[in-house]
Design brief:
367 residues, Immunoglobulin-like, six-stranded mixed sheet, Jelly Rolls, mainly beta, five-stranded mixed sheet, 4 domains
Length: 367
């Protein structure tokens, strides 16, 4: 396999390139030359192709030494950008989605610094600026910075207020550059992300579907998201549909289930999840103590009185029927059965839900 080495001057002007090098990667610091051997370095985003930031999605992990030199206006808080990276983000598009509200004009730009080189000849930290521009490649078109900071050595968040809808904003991250002749631009690994009401679309339905729903067997939970962001793709067990803005969830077994709607808005992923819990319509106690002390002497089933047609059958561990009742009154005291665990099957026979599965479990007589 062919590998390349390029010698650069301080401002990344190539001096020579040659091939057939070993696969291992090394870094040598010379007084005025940076020698890079190897491959796999992050590609820089220059002004002509900024990396588009999606809300709550971090950028690629980048190495600040791989940026490109650019000119700067006097309004920025730093005057050199030897290794610049460009990012862009867009505020809510009210032209494409006129029915949504732009109630929050703020966004948070986050710079997460993973690590920086510790060479004494290398200046540490990063500079960051957020700005609007007619052309990100033309510094004369840059507006006043909305946020600007220099010599950042730790992860930092910038809250930017007063953003306008339907607008593209730019983020530039660049290395520090020392005035000492034997120093080079700093080398830090970093990621950039953006969040906040000015950039995040809310895909919840209006009015919103409750995020948590509890249903009984035979019932269907209705789950909805905002139809203006259709198409959606749904995932989860026993859905009535896997697309569309409204679907039904009908899980088959008792438990908690997660259902998720996913879509893309301006090439950015969005999702909304719901929890649906399927519970029995009755609560069956799993033990009782028929010792005539006035406490817990009979087998209790909460809300069984609501199902007058319910049929209850209790079996021994060998499958023999030991108790049967219809329209149960919470009055079974065990009929003198020995202390043991028994097994029940309850058919509610609910006229509104004849397809409901039987409720099965165990009950222990303690003497």
């Amino acid at each position: 396999m062919l590998y390349y080495v390029t010698l650069f001057e301080r401002k990344a002007t190539p001096l020579m390139t040659f091939g057939y090098l070993p696969k291992a990667a090394f870094l040598f610091v010379l007084p005025s030359v940076l020698l890079l051997l190897g491959y796999g370095q992050a590609q820089s985003q220059d002004c002509s192709d900024p990396e588009a930031l999606c809300p709550l999605v971090a950028s690629d992990t980048l190495s600040s030494s791989e940026g490109v030199p650019v000119g700067l206006p006097d309004s920025f808080c730093f005057d050199e950008a030897p290794n610049a990276f460009f990012f862009s983000f867009e505020t809510l598009d009210l032209l494409q989605y006129p029915d949504i509200d732009f109630l929050d004009s703020a966004a948070v730009v986050s710079l997460s610094i993973d690590s920086c080189r510790t060479d004494t000849l290398v200046s540490q930290g990063l500079n960051l600026v957020v700005f609007e521009a007619d052309d990100p490649c033309d510094p004369e078109s840059y507006g006043e910075p909305l946020a600007c900071a220099e010599e950042l050595e730790q992860s930092t968040q910038f809250t930017i207020e007063g953003l306008q809808p339907n607008t593209t904003y730019y983020v530039m991250v660049t290395s520090l550059f020392d005035d000492e002749p034997d120093a080079i631009a700093s080398d830090c690994a970093f990621v950039v992300s953006v969040s906040g009401g000015a950039v995040e679309y809310n895909i919840a339905a209006v009015p919103p579907t409750p995020p948590n729903q509890t249903i009984n067997p035979g019932q269907v939970a209705s789950l909805s998201v905002n139809s203006i962001f259709d198409p959606y793709e749904w995932t989860g067990e026993n859905l009535t549909a896997t697309s569309g803005s409204t679907v039904g969830a009908n899980p088959s077994d008792f438990g908690v289930y997660t259902y998720t709607a996913e879509t893309e808005i301006n090439d950015c992923p969005y999702q909304l999840s719901f929890l649906v819990t399927l519970v029995p319509p009755i609560t069956v106690f799993n033990a009782f103590t028929p010792n005539n002390d006035g406490f817990n002497d009979t087998w209790e089933i909460d809300r069984i009185q609501e199902f007058q047609n319910a049929q209850i059958i209790v079996y021994s561990r060998w499958g023999s029927k030991v108790f049967q009742a219809t329209n149960y009154k919470n009055d079974w005291d065990g009929d003198g059965l020995p202390a043991a665990t028994y097994y029940y099957v309850i058919e509610l026979n609910d006229p509104s839900n004849f397809d409901a599965p039987p409720i099965m479990g165990s009950v222990t007589i303690i003497r």
